[in-house]
Amino acid sequence: MSVSFLYSRGDEPPIKIPAIGLDLFVRMAPAMSGGEFCFIETINAPGAGPPRHRHREAEIFRVLEGRYLYEVDGRRFFADAGDVVSIPGGAAHGFVNVTDAPARQYILMAPALDAVAFFTELAGVMHDGLPDTAALNAFGAKWQVEFLGPPVRASDGAT
User: What are the strands of the beta sheet with 58-65, ordered from one edge?
Assistant: First the structure.
């Protein structure tokens, strides 16, 4: 694996997806690691998170601020600032910010996903709100992402 030199001040504008309360920053694009991995930072609004989904890429989350309720292959648990959560490729998952303030995570995806293209297109798909699962899966087919249902909700609880 080769990694290119990168110095980022983190001042690029976010990709915004209001339908799921997401501001996303691509901190290290796939080209910087030869496609091995990418880094993204997310800011999730209170009570917000993505629809449940699965994809081939593994993800490693580090909670920077706040508290999240995760669901991974039906198992639910809370993750707080400083916690690390690894999700294997192919696992069904989702999460929600369970605080009353924005929460942040840093995410490594491997192999890399062209996160700028994916999330920009997803913002377009969700421009009028959260579409139904069939519409999301039509979009997801291009990216090998399967959307499995609505976002995790704090009222779902943890086990």
Answer: 15-17, 22-28, 38-44, 103-110, 58-65, 84-87
Do 18 and 47 form a contact (C-beta atoms < 8 A)? no
Structure confidence by residue, pLDDT tens digits, 71-106: 999 999 999 999 999 999 999 999 999 999 999 999
Q: Report whether 103 contacts 66 (CB < 8 A).
A: yes
**What tokens does 4 get?**
């290119």
pTM for the predicted model, two decimal places: 0.91
Question: Which residues contact residue 132 at a Cβ distance below 8 angstroms, ignoring those fewer than 6 apart?
Answer: none
Euclidean distance between CA atoms 122 and 152, whole angstroms: 18
Q: How far apart are CA 159 and CA 142, in angstroms?
A: 34
Q: What are the structural domains, with CATH classification, of the chain? A: 15-149 (2.60.120.10)
Q: Pick from 106, 104, 138, 110: which is nearest to 124 by CA? A: 138
